[in-house]
Amino acid sequence: MHKLFFSKNSVNLSNVIFPYLIGIFPVLFIFNYNKEELSIHDLVLPVLVTLFSIKILMLLLIKIFKDVKKAGLFLLFLIATFFFYDNIFDFLIPYRDWPPLRHLNQFLAIAIIITFFLSFILIRKSKISLILVKFLNIVGIYLLFFNLIEISIYKIIKRDLFKNNYQVDEYENNVKKPAVFTQNNKGARDIYFIILDGYPSSKVLMEFYHYNNKYFIDMLKSKGFFIAENSRANYSATFLSLASSLNMMYLNHLEKGIENINNFKDRKVPYEMIKNNRLVSNLKTYGYKYVHFKSTWGATDHNPNADIYLSGPNSLLLSKFNTEFNMVILKSTILREWLKKNNYFNLYSDQILFNLDKISDLNGIQGPKFIFAHIMSPHPPYVFDEFGKSPKVVNMNYFGNEWNRKDAFIDQLKFVNKKIILAVNKILINSEIEPIIVIQADHGTCSTCDSSNENTMNNYELSEETLRERLNILNAMYLPEGGSKLLYDEISPVNTFRCIFKFYFDKGFKLLEDKHYYSSYESPYKFLDVTGKGIFE
Ligand SMILES: [Zn+2]
After folding, report:
1. 458 versus 25: which is more confidently predicted?
2. How far apart are the first and last CA of the chain?
3. In this structure, are residues 368 and 289 in contact, taking their beta carbons and an 8 Å threshold?
4. What value does the mean pLDDT of the chain take?
5. Which chain residues have CB less than 5 Å from ligand 1, an ion?
6. Is the domain 169-529 a CATH 3.40.720.10 member?
7. What angle do CA 446, 293, 507 make, to 5 degrees?
8. Sign (positive/negative) of CA torsion 344, 345, 348, 352?
9. At 108, is the pLDDT very low, low, confident or very high (cuts 50, 70, 90)?
10. What is the pTM of this model?
């Protein structure tokens, strides 16, 4: 790889290497900023694509300028424009009252073309000194160096803090390798685990959103679903909640061994627990196939253990490329406006639509199968109106004030309701053996959270009201042939699959006490036991 991009003497500061260095800088910078949620692998594709594009442009510009230094300098203008367009755009937004800035994109397009033209002429005419090249190279090295150091320190040292905490005794005690069932267990029923992100309980919808969800709930009940009316999430954040429900265990052991618990946000262990979860590994020993739907969110986006990975309507390359990190990079470039107009919203909403439609269309896959779909709605951003069309206002915001756009939230929820009813009907009609279906939220809504601080929810601002809103979730379970008799109104996600295992697979499985923990975005491992709080009277 090295030789492909740099000449043999690439260490020589007289060579024009700054376009490559400064070009990778934004990618590294964004990675560094989000390093708690990302793994080093996420860097490979964007770095390669960036280097390759710069190389191609470099070759092209050398042909035009007939001078490497000039080509490099002009390319630097292109790179800066590409990566900083949206910063300039955002900077100018407050001054839009000034007539020329009213059509900001057009204004910037003209400004950029003129700047390019002038700098092209200027660079072409002047002689570029070697000192400038060396200076820019040093700037490039400096920018990369500090980010690389920070990332390395973080990835090498901080990850160790978690190491010894991954396995807990409780984990092993409960895993009983079944002797009888192996491989093809054809008689077993399919299991659907559908996570609707941020879907609150009916009581929350009534109190905080003034919406009566009775129709949807009654529809599910009429099909034979058990609705746990007082079900509350065990953890308040997605990545903790899913790590817990998919492993059928609490995560409080993770806080041990973390030195600076107030600032520790690394998600590596919970993400790994989501990807290599105990639920799937147990089901595989019973001969289950694992069908995984792409989510577009971090830990559930894809899964290495999936037997079948359903990645949506786009081409394979596009779907694989459409990771959260890559989209964040693209969103910070000049392509943002183009993405807005064409693709970006669609990539996100298309995936949700695909999942909601495809989930009832898996008859072609021989069972028994475990189907996992983490569906990003009704959580913001609001990309659907009640009829599934794109709403008039679309902000691609995932947190903060978006929870307070209550009409938009309810519209999206209504659409999800319709799709879920259709899917459930179809699944029930088409399944030869009655399936198990779990439709569950990871946490509730957040309109009363402190949104002045973007996505932060601080413990000291935690009110009874916020707890009620954030923790009470939709939890609907279809457990045929008497499985529902183990369920109760307060059952929490940690026990969902404990019940299912106990009833259908292994009587020895034990239920845990339903406990509930709150933690903030800034200190996700500082668990606050709120078991007796946030309960509807
Ligand atoms: Zn969530």
Report:
1. 25
2. 63
3. yes
4. 85
5. 197, 238, 442
6. yes
7. 85
8. negative
9. confident
10. 0.79
